[in-house]
Amino acid sequence: MGVLPVIARELRAQARQPMTHWLRVVGGLAVAAAIGLALWKVGPLKTRAATTVIGSSWGAPGNPRALAQEFGVILFGVMNLFVFAVIWLFVPLATADAVSRERREGTLALLYLTELGSLGIVVGKVFVHMLRSVSLFLTMAPWLMLPVVFGGVGSR
User: Fold this and answer.
1) Angle, helix 64-85 to helix 18-51, in steps of 10 degrees
2) ∠ CA 133-82-89 to the nearest 5 degrees?
């Protein structure tokens, strides 16, 4: 008996957990907060752009293209900060309780009745929580392309 039955059981159990839903909501709110913070930071650039002369060169702050590129650069930095915070702070907080929850619910003894050892149980739980964090990243991944669309970040 391998680790796959533990992984399948954990995936079914995690799908029913409210924390899985709230973790995705936190990811979406982090993206929305990052976009809001980037828009707030671009406010002084917009007022500076309004005071420059119309018809300035492409690189000047009065150019709407330069303003969009600057917004893309700011958005890229803010989104990276928020994604880092969500993945490296909220995911470990949500997964730190995995084995102790089994003990509290009284199902850890049932897992030891199988042919799995301690290492197999831990590997199964770690894999499931890693998969949950990857799904959190995948909910944010389409929004991470916004800085590329605005032109502030290139492919290199």
Assistant:
1) 150
2) 50
Report yes or no on 99 lying in a domain: yes
Would the pTM count as exceeding 0.70? no
DSSP secondary structure string for all residues of 18-44:
HHHHHHHHHHHHHHHHHHHHHHHHHHH
Q: Does residue 48 lie in a domain region?
A: no
The pLDDT value recorded for residue 49 is: 52
Identify the pLDDT of residue 93. Answer: 74
Mean pLDDT of all residues in 9-33: 79
| Domain region containing 31 | 4-36+83-150
What's the CA gap between 21 and 95, in Å, rounded? 14
Please choose, from the candidates 82, 74, 75, the residue with its C-alpha nearest in 3D space to the C-alpha of residue 28.
82
